[in-house]
Amino acid sequence: MLNKKNAYLLLVFVTVVLIVYSIYANFVHDPRATAFLSQKIDLRRALQVAVWLKVMHVHVAFACLAMIAGAINFSSIILKKYRKFHRLNGYLYVISVMIVDLTSGYMAPFATGGKISSMAFNLLNIIWMFFIIMAIVKIRKKQIDRHRKWMIRSYAFVFTNFSIHLLTTIFQKGFGLIYTESYTISIYFSIVLLLLVGEMVTRIPSKATG
After folding, report:
1. 84-115: per-residue pLDDT in tens?
2. Model pTM?
3. Considering only Cβ atoms within 10 Å of each terminal Cβ, which end of the chain, N or C, has fewer?
């Protein structure tokens, strides 16, 4: 059974692995997102690929920043010994999430699966920003524990892309659904799953996370 310190180290390990994979997949292996864009059919508006790619790369870069900044700030050592860094790193996390949300908002109308997928991404963006706002409100009121819980709920959503692609593979390979259907269903499933995971983690005592 994992203790809290080992659980935190596992979180950091998983975060680093996902960041390395994201950078490799999006900037080295397939920088023009050829495979992903090939699934975008029957779009209601013209997709300017060059612009979309630039926005997507910004989206990925700041998603990676949000992942690592959030993981660092959950360390109890950072919180106790480097409070100023914790605060500044928190600002970096918030700014990164805001940029991820904005770029996601641009890409949502072109989402694989059409309008129903776009609606899911917009819902996800609203929920994520709400969590961020609540975390800021709570820390300004010096409500440390509540701030931590809202940050946990928020941080769960940095794994949205991983969750969507994992579930898409499961629905496609395991249940025989076509890619578009699998992807669309996975967005909604991911919202529910990450909400549940975040809420479960908030119920774990905050002592000795790292």
Report:
1. 999 999 999 999 999 999 999 999 999 999 89
2. 0.90
3. N
Answer yes or no: are the C-beta atoms of 115 and 48 closer than 8 Å: no
Alpha-carbon dihedral angle through residues 70, 74, 80, 84, given to the nearest 10 degrees: 10
Task: Report d(CA 134, CA 115) in Å as an integer.
Answer: 29
Q: Which two tokens stand for residue 135?
A: 């975390």
Type of residue at 187? I
- Which residues does 73 contact at the CB level (< 8 Å), separation at least 6? 79, 86, 89, 90, 93, 151
Using left for φ > 0, alpha for ψ between -120 and 50, and beta otherwise, residue 143 falls in beta
CA nearest 104: which of 85, 91, 113, 117?
Answer: 117
HSE-up of 116 (CA within 13 Å, CB side)?
10
Identify whether the C-beta of residue 81 lies closer than 8 Å to the C-beta of residue 51. Answer: no
